[in-house]
Inverse folding.
C-alpha cells in the first residue's frame, strides 16, 4: 500500500491475483501501463459503481499488452494478439501483471510501436480526438489554442489539430518551445513569462483547455463569435459555472477511434511521446510526480515485466 502526496492510498504489487475474465471480458497480460497522477484523485479510484468505498485500488487504466484469455462470447480478438487501450475506471487498473477489459475498449496495437510507446497513447490520444473532432468539430483552416501543449494529452492535441489542417497556438514552458514547434505548433507561449491573452494576435475558433482554473477563466474572451471551447482539466469538473460544465467532458473508450489512431501512428502522421519509462518498482514515485530522468513532456510509462 502506498500513500501519495495527495494522501490517496493505492495498491501496487506484482503478486496481485490473476483475474478471471467473465462473459464478454478479455484478460490482458500487461506489458506497459501509462501513468496519470491525477487519476488518484478521481472518484472511481476510491469508489465502487454503487458508491461504496473501494479499498487499495490498482491504478493505471491505459495499457499495451497481450490477450491472455477470452471470456464467454468474445470473438473480436484472439489469444496472443497484441492490443492496446483502456479498461473501466471502476475496475482494477493495469499497473499489474494482468487486467480485465472489454473488446470495445481496445484495438490492435500499432505495429510499429513498442509496448512502452503504445501505452503512452490511449488516454492522451482519445481525449484529444474526442475534444477536437467530436466536440469542437475543428475544421481545416481554423485557429486553435491548446493549453498545456507539452502534457500527455496536449502533445496529441497539437498533432491531431495539425492533421486536421488547423493553425495551432499552444501554451507551455519555454524549454518545450522547440519540441512543440516540431510537433506542429506555429506559436508557443511561455505561460510562466507571458500573458497569453496579449501574446495571441487576434481571436481563435477553438480552445482546447488542459489546464483549467484561472487559465480557463481568462480564455473565453479569445474566442471568435461562434467559437468553441472544450476543457478536460481536472479542475473544471467541480465547477458551478454552467459554461464550464458544458465545455467539460471525460474521455470515453472507443475501439473505432483507437483503430484510427493506430493507423496514423503506423503511417507516421502521429507520434507517441514517452516522457520516461520507469520500472515497476518506481511506479509509486512516478505517481507522486517524482519519476527520475523526466524530460517533462508527454507520458510517463511503467514497464511491467
Ligand atoms: N477529462 C478527461 O477525460 C481527462 C483525460 C486526461 C487528462 N485529464 C486532465 O487533463 C489535465 C492534463 O492532463 P495531462 O495528462 O496532459 O497532464 P500532464 O501530462 O501532467 O501535463 C500537464 C502540462 O500542463 C502544463 N501546464 C501547467 N500549468 C500550465 C499553465 N498555466 N499553462 C499552460 N500549461 C501549463 C505543463 O507544461 P510544462 O511542463 O511545459 O510547463 C504540463 O506539461 C489534467 O488535469 C488531467 O487530470 C482529463
Amino acid at each position: 500500500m502506498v500513500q501519495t502526496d495527495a494522501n490517496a492510498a493505492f495498491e501496487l504489487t506484482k503478486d496481485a491475483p490473476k483475474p478471471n475474465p467473465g462473459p464478454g471480458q478479455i484478460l490482458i497480460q500487461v506489458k506497459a501501463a501509462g501513468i496519470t497522477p491525477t487519476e488518484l484523485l478521481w472518484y472511481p479510484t476510491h469508489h465502487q459503481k454503487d458508491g461504496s468505498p473501494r479499498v487499495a485500488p490498482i491504478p493505471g487504466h491505459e495499457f499495451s499488452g497481450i490477450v491472455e484469455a477470452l471470456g464467454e462470447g468474445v470473438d473480436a480478438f484472439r489469444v496472443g494478439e497484441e492490443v492496446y487501450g483502456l479498461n473501466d475506471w471502476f475496475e482494477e487498473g493495469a499497473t499489474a501483471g494482468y487486467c480485465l477489459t472489454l473488446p470495445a475498449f481496445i484495438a490492435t496495437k500499432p505495429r510499429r510501436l513498442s509496448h512502452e510507446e503504445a501505452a503512452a497513447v490511449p488516454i492522451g490520444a482519445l481525449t484529444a480526438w474526442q475534444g477536437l473532432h467530436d466536440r469542437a468539430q475543428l475544421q481545416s483552416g481554423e485557429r486553435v489554442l491548446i493549453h498545456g501543449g507539452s502534457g500527455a494529452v496536449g502533445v496529441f492535441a497539437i498533432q491531431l489539430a495539425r492533421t486536421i489542417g488547423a493553425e495551432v497556438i499552444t501554451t507551455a514552458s519555454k524549454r518545450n518551445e522547440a519540441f512543440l514547434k516540431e510537433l506542429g505548433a506555429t506559436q508557443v507561449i511561455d505561460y510562466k513569462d507571458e500573458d497569453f491573452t496579449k501574446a495571441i494576435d487576434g481571436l481563435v475558433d477553438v480552445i482546447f483547455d488542459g489546464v483549467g482554473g484561472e487559465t480557463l477563466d481568462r480564455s473565453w474572451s479569445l474566442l471568435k463569435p461562434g467559437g468553441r471551447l472544450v476543457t478536460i482539466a481536472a479542475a473544471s469538473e467541480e465547477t458551478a459555472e454552467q459554461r464550464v460544465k458544458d465545455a467539460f467532458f471525460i474521455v470515453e473508450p472507443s475501439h473505432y477511434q483507437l483503430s484510427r489512431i493506430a493507423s496514423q501512428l503506423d503511417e507516421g502522421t502521429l507520434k507517441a511521446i514517452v516522457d520516461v519509462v520507469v520500472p515497476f518498482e518506481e511506479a509509486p514515485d512516478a505517481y507522486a510526480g517524482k519519476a527520475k530522468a523526466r524530460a517533462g513532456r508527454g507520458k510517463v510509462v511503467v514497464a511491467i515485466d
About this structure: Residues 36, 38, 123, 127, 147-148, 150-154, 171-173, 176, 191, 210-211, 215, 232-234, 250-251, 296 surround NAP (CB under 6 Å). The longest helix spans residues 122-135. Confidence is low (pLDDT under 50) at residues 1-7.
